[in-house]
Specification:
Layout: H1 5-17, E1 20-21, H2 22-28, H3 36-49, E2 52-57, E3 60-65, H4 69-84, H5 89-99, H6 104-124
Antiparallel strand pairs: 1-3, 2-3
C-alpha cells in the first residue's frame, strides 16, 4: 500500500524525528503550516495503513513510524522500475546514466559500485 504525497510529507518528518507529538510534527512543516486537524487526519489514515503507530501519554499521542525509510524507498523504487521501465533494472540503469548529468567521476563511482556487487555475488556462490 502506498502513501499519498501529503502522507509522505508527514512520514518524512516522522522518520527525521523518530517519534513526535502532533505539535512537534506541525512545527516541522514549512510555512504555511497545515492545521493540526489536517495532520491528525493524515496520521489516522497512515495508522490504518500500518505505516504509523502511537503511544498514549494521558490524552496525548506520541507517533512513531512502523516502516523504515529504506524499506519504504526500496518498495517505492521497485514499483517505479516495474511501472516505468517494464520491470527491467537495465532499462532503468540506461535511462539513469543517459538522462542525468553525471560527471565522469560519478560514473566511475557507479561502475565501482556495480563491480563490487558483482564480486560480492560471485563470492556467495
Amino acid at each position: 500500500m502506498a502513501l499519498t504525497n501529503a502522507e509522505e510529507q508527514v512520514m518524512k518528518i516522522l522518520w527525521k524525528l523518530e517519534k513526535a507529538f502532533i505539535r512537534d510534527l506541525v512545527n516541522e512543516f514549512p510555512d504555511p503550516r497545515p492545521a493540526q486537524t489536517t495532520v491528525l487526519t493524515l496520521l489516522k489514515r497512515m495508522t490504518d495503513k500500518g505505516f504509523v503507530s502511537y503511544k498514549l501519554f494521558g490524552n496525548s499521542r506520541e507517533y512513531f513510524p512502523l516502516v523504515e525509510k529504506s524499506d519504504y524507498f526500496s518498495d517505492h523504487f521497485h514499483g517505479l522500475i516495474k511501472d516505468f521501465f517494464n520491470n527491467s533494472t537495465s532499462q532503468f540503469a540506461s535511462f539513469f546514466t543517459n538522462e542525468t548529468e553525471m560527471s565522469p567521476e560519478e560514473l566511475r563511482e557507479l561502475r565501482d559500485l556495480v563491480d563490487r556487487k558483482i564480486e560480492s555475488e560471485k563470492r556467495k556462490r
